[in-house]
Amino acid sequence: MIGKTVLDNGIRVITEQIPGAHSVTLGIWVENGSRHETAAQNGISHFLEHMLFKGTERRRAQDIAREIDSVGGVLNAFTGREFSCYYAKVLAQNLSLAVDLLSDAFLHSVFEPAELEKERRVILQEIHMVEDDPEETVHDLFSREFWQNHPLGRPVLGTAETVGAHSREALLDYRFRNYCGRKLIVCAAGNVEHQRIVDRISEAFERVPSGAAPLACDLPYYRQGVGLTPREFEQVHICLGARAFPQNHSHRYEAYLLNTLLGSSMSSRLFQTIREERGLAYSVYSYLNCHTDAGALVVYAGTTPGQAREVVELSLREMGRLRREEVSADALEAAKAQLKGNLLLSLESTDNRMTRLANNEIYFGRQVQIEEVIRGFEEVTATSLREQAEEMIREEELHLQIVGRVDEGDFTQADLTFG
């Protein structure tokens, strides 16, 4: 059973009671992420996420860690391009502790200067770690070039330059401006009573100002392009992507199925063709990266320099096939069954249930029932799938990003054709 209450200051409290569950996952979501930052602020949302667990007016960082560990719980956070989330997972009898820890960290963190400088060094190490990982690097570079001159293309972590410039005053001001009631969603799933959560959140967050609702962002511009970044890696790392639909698009079910057929599993076309049949890559897959108003369908593969062209050509061929050919009835039914199975299995986790509550609120403004999702998959036909592939996957909007032992001129825009 799902319940929703909007508090006087605009905070939305959404819960799902799951009969038989022993745990509760509680999350505080902020509709603010890296795409809402200016260029100079890049990385400040992520920096803020780190600082909220580094000590409050009544707890040191060690106390926060010790208290959650003492009940076998999990306390963590993450930052994305459109939101940040702070969450705890505990046994149901420890829900009061989870609410107290999260609200204390969220509302009363002190941003002690010594801790701030320590955490700045930690984040810089995190940035360096990404830069040393070629797979992470190629995804970041792909986003930067695909979403060129748009906030969606900026790294969530920020850069060494921007992170080095964030002051304590800037962090506090950013929190004050963005961590307000109309941007907050509190979600809980598991062995939980809706009114109990509403009462606890209302009491803890009553002084949070309502503030302003999230602002609409400018739409990105898509264009064809090739980016080559020479690095002395053993493998060449490839990202090839096209435009995809936003999260709430009416044809999102076709997009999910296209991704499933293309490369999201071991039975997918890319995995079978590139890895199983030809042995050209160990890691090859595709994924959807979709937001409020934009999206991307991205193929990744890691291969040797001498085989990079063949991998790119095969990836383009499979993308082109989705545009030209209707999939067989058996292949379509198998993809539908896979997605429905993945969805239903994910519902066994209170973490996933809590996240689903938040995503539905952020992207749809309502709770999309499981039956509606399954019906959406069932209604997709081979013809509608091909038609939406033509709409999404266009040569004039393809972007290829490669990191490794490549030279300028190895790949050009003229190579980005479906053949």
Could you characterize what this model shows?
- This protein is α+β, with helices and mostly antiparallel strands and 419 residues long.
- The strands form 2 sheets. Strands 1-2-6-3-5-4 form a 6-stranded mixed β-sheet, with helices on both faces. It has a 5-stranded mixed β-sheet with strand order 7-11-8-10-9, sandwiched between helices.
- Helix 11 packs across helix 15.
- Strand 4 and strand 5 form a beta hairpin.
- It is globular, with a radius of gyration of 23 Å.
Major beta-sheet overview: 6 strands, mixed
Assembly of the depicted chains: single chain
Silhouette: globular
Q: Please report the total strand number as a whole number.
A: 11
Total helices: the number is 15
List keywords for this structure.
419 residues; five-stranded mixed β-sheet; 11 strands; alpha+beta; six-stranded mixed β-sheet
Quick overview of this protein structure:
This protein has 419 residues and is an alpha+beta fold. Helix content is 43%, strand content 18%.
